[in-house]
Specification:
This protein has helices spanning 3-9, 27-41, 46-56, 81-93, 110-121, 135-138, 162-177, 202-217, 225-233, 246-261; strands at 15-17, 24-26, 74-78, 99-101, 128-131, 140-141, 157-158, 182-186, 220-223. With 267 residues, it is an alpha/beta fold. The radius of gyration is 29 Å and the shape is globular. The termini are far apart.
């Protein structure tokens, strides 16, 4: 800034009485101090602090990567909140046998799978991939995409109709096979009566159609977790809810770990 401009800024016309009698402070100086105070206080405001906390909030334990042992095979679990519920237990059960990963998200319906699968696969070499889609495909959406709508309400529809589900599932299965990993399809767990936004039995229709499709594709193992849950874990499924109690998730985890163990590379 040149001297003429500086003189204009601090000229008598821009001076105001200071905090003490007889002292005159340039208005620009007052503005400077206000700016400094704002710069100090704004980052400490509740809003700023809450935003910073939200950014730094750690991911749920199941979403965090394992401690990797490079000498062990790598396993990828792809699935919704049911798989999130059993991921940590599977990781513990396979400790010393495999590095167990999952995407840091609920993988949702097949439509999301087709969009994000390459990101989830990433650049890591996978030995086993255990995957499921279904509960988010069969759920009902309402007007303005209202989540978990009443299946009987006017205009409600399944998020991914069966025909579209099979198209998406084919794309996903073929992409997973292309990784060279041993691929395991996990059937969708039961929908109990009264579950919000879903109809009991729809998962059976989708599982049956998926089994036929995957048999046609070939080279993919089927893990019938639905049959196990229906027989041995149904008492640990929450009432009118697709989710399981912690004990139920542990029961599922044992089955998932065993299915993965059978597909791990043999020395």
């Amino acid at each position: 800034m040149n001297r003429s401009k500086l003189a204009t800024i601090v000229s008598p016309e821009t001076r105001v009485p200071g905090p003490r009698s007889g002292v005159v402070w340039p208005m620009v100086t007052d503005m400077f101090f206000v700016a400094i105070i704002l710069l100090v206080l704004i980052p400490l405001s509740p809003i700023a602090m809450s935003q910073e906390a939200a950014v730094k909030k750690p991911a749920a334990p199941a979403m965090q990567p394992p401690v990797v042992n490079e000498s062990l095979p790598n396993v990828l679990i792809i699935g919704d909140s049911i798989s999130i519920g059993y991921t940590l237990d599977v990781r513990e059960l396979l400790q010393g046998q495999a590095n167990v990963f999952r995407p840091a998200t609920n993988c949702g319906p097949t439509s999301r799978g087709t969009e994000q699968l390459d990101t989830w696969i990433g650049s890591r070499a996978w030995d086993v991939i255990h995957f499921n889609f279904g509960l988010h495909d069969v759920k009902y959406m309402g007007a303005a995409d209202k989540n978990l709508a009443d299946p009987k309400s006017p205009g409600s529809h399944q998020q991914v109709p069966l025909d579209d589900y099979l198209v998406n599932l084919r794309l996903i299965a073929e992409r997973l096979k292309a990784t060279g990993a041993a691929v395991i399809w996990c059937s969708t767990t039961p929908i109990p009566e009264g579950a919000k936004g879903r109809v009991a039995g729809d998962e059976v229709r989708y599982n049956t159609a998926a089994a036929e499709l995957l048999q046609e594709i070939g080279g993919i193992t089927t893990h019938d977790l639905h049959a196990f849950a229906k027989k041995s874990a149904v008492t640990e499924q929450k009432k009118a809810d697709v989710h399981f109690t912690p004990k139920g998730s542990k029961l599922l985890a044992r089955q998932v770990a065993q299915s993965i163990q059978r597909s791990l590379p043999q020395d």
